[in-house]
Specification:
Immunoglobulin-like, mainly beta, 4-stranded antiparallel beta sheet, 8 strands, 125 residues
Length: 125
């Protein structure tokens, strides 16, 4: 699996600028587990897509500003996360499982059956 950063520039609301979430990728014999740190992103504002061999993670940070207040100083200018990964053909993208807890997205991507190691029993003749 390969990662590719995606960002843009400008201040237009349709701006494609986004923060790259930090991720950990763990592998075992059955597949991989991807953990992505997405603080401030609610499950409802998270979008996961698989197009071809590309997995795309996008999330919007929900920091509503009360109507009677205005920002005087802000360090967080990009209220979005976006990261794309190229999935190996060994992985079964049709069986991805996703869960979100405490700002951490957990994706479980199993390997295809043919890519999993299997034990071959030897029979005595």
């Amino acid at each position: 699996m390969r990662t590719s950063p995606e960002s843009g520039n400008g201040r237009d609301p349709r701006d494609t600028r986004a923060l790259l979430p930090r991720v950990d990728v763990l592998e075992d014999t059955a597949g991989i587990t991807l953990l992505a740190d997405l603080p401030g992103v609610a499950k409802e504002r998270l979008e996961l897509k698989v197009e071809g061999d590309t997995l795309l993670i996008e999330g919007e940070v929900g920091t509503p500003m009360p109507a009677q207040m205005q920002s005087v100083y802000a360090e967080i200018r990009v209220p979005r996360y976006r990261r794309a990964f190229t999935l190996s053909r060994e992985l079964d993208s049709a069986r991805i499982e996703a869960s979100m807890k405490d700002g951490v997205l957990r994706l479980r991507i199993p390997k295809q059956e043919h890519a999993r190691p299997r034990r071959i029993e030897v029979r005595a003749s």
